[in-house]
């Protein structure tokens, strides 16, 4: 009887080549379809846009608000707000 050594990669992703590897959303972990060219699924992109819009609208109407103020009023996590700042989508004004 012949024994086969199957790697964990093959158990998770099948026996296809690199092009056959399935990709997952880096935000929520769901499988991405072959037509999806980004590393984030459509649902997470929509969530990100909604959260950005909420934060932006709050900042526009409450100039000088602190990150704590933004979080308490919008319930958008500070990590997300910091990501918007690092992505230069919003600007920190001192």
Structure commentary:
The chain has 94 residues and is mainly alpha-helical. Helix content is 46%, strand content 0%. The chain has one domain (8-86). The chain contains four helices and no strands. The protein is elongated. The relative contact order is 0.09.
In short:
The protein has one domain.
- The helix/strand class is mainly alpha
Please outline the major beta sheet: none
Got a strand count?
0
Uncertain residue segments: 4-19
Measured by DSSP, the beta-strand proportion falls in under 5%
Summarize the helices and strands and which ones pair or pack.
Elements: H1 8-13, H2 42-61, H3 67-74, H4 78-86
